[in-house]
Amino acid sequence: MTDSVKRIFPLGFPWPTQDPFLFCVHNLDHFPEGNEDMGPATSLAGRNLGNDFTGKDGWSMYHGKKVPGFPYHPHRGFETVTIANTGYCDHSDSLGAAGRFGEGDVQWMTAGKGVQHAEMFPLLETGQKNTLELFQIWLNLPKVNKLVAPHFSMLWNEDIPVVETEGVTVKLVAGTFAEREAPAPAPDSWAADPINEVAIWLIKMDPRSKLILPQSKDVVNRSLYLYGGSDVAIGNETIRKGQGAALVSTEDATLANGNVEAHLLLLQGRPISEPVAKYGPFVMNTQNEIEQAMREYRETEFGGWPWPTPDHVHPREQGRFAKFPDGTLTEK
């Protein structure tokens, strides 16, 4: 490996991550036309409804049975950052918050002491296919913030800075680049303190373009994922589509794209460096804390479920919006 590349790895499912990140998946579904219920206007025969991750015909229902997506489920002890590049996601949660976001929007949710939410993918188009491209990233919380109050925020696509250099665009979901700063993250997030140098960047490179990733101020974990394109050189090393690289953050890294437009995701941050105990949707520091989380969820359901169905979706005619737990409503 070179001075800027520690190792190269296959992406797999989910993608490998480094502390402070826990989990990262990239979903690309070429859904068919939607029906009257905003589900697929085609037969669902042969699918294991409720647990369909097969990618049959280019798409999956995931845990949905009528509408693709993830009906209500709990989280505790970490944050979810959901990037909807194409298509839409309908959010509903146990705080009474809700939203429809997509076409480049980002939802940032701090689960903290516990929240239930549903993430459904309504197929709004009835006369054409419905493509969904979505990332979900789990960012850990340090022990001191594991049980903070849950928080829900929306980063609208129009408010997310995009840095353009020659043949390259860098979209800043978190962090700073070229003297531009991403929108503020959730207040109790590990990303809220600049010393942690958390960065979430979506990078698009034209054929034969170059980009220099600047060195970090301190030693942090930096992962780069090539999910679209062909090949990108990093110094003397090369990653190909479906591969990622762990980079040395304290050295500049020069990226040189090949002959096909490339799409990359960068995740970076100072490690929390605490024990991690995980069980499904709960991430704590010890097994005893996991057992406590499970008991509390059985007893309280983290506030219950105020929506009529576990797979709640919003009306078809509803545009992009966010309704917050205090009743504040933002529409786009």
Characteristic key phrases:
single chain, 332 residues, mainly beta, 7-stranded antiparallel sheet, 6-stranded antiparallel sheet, 1 helix, 26 strands, 4% helix, 44% strand, globular
Describe this structure in words.
- It is a single chain.
- The chain is mainly beta and about 325 residues long.
- It has one helix at about 285-300; strands spanning about 5-10, 20-30, 70-75, 80-85, 90-95, 100, 105-110, 115-120, 130-140, 150-155, 160-165, 170-175, 175, 180, 200-205, 210-215, 220-230, 230-235, 235-240, 245-250, 255, 260-270, 275-280, 280-285, 320-325, 330.
How does the SSE layout of this entry go?
Layout: E1 5-10, E2 21-31, E3 69-75, E4 78-86, E5 88-93, E6 98-102, E7 105-110, E8 115-120, E9 130-140, E10 151-155, E11 162-165, E12 168-174, E13 176-177, E14 180-181, E15 199-205, E16 210-213, E17 221-228, E18 231-234, E19 237-240, E20 243-248, E21 253-257, E22 262-269, E23 277-279, E24 282-284, H1 287-300, E25 321-323, E26 329-331
Antiparallel strand pairs: 1-20, 2-9, 3-8, 4-7, 4-9, 5-6, 5-8, 6-25, 7-10, 11-12, 12-15, 13-14, 15-22, 16-21, 17-20, 17-22, 18-19, 18-21, 23-24, 25-26
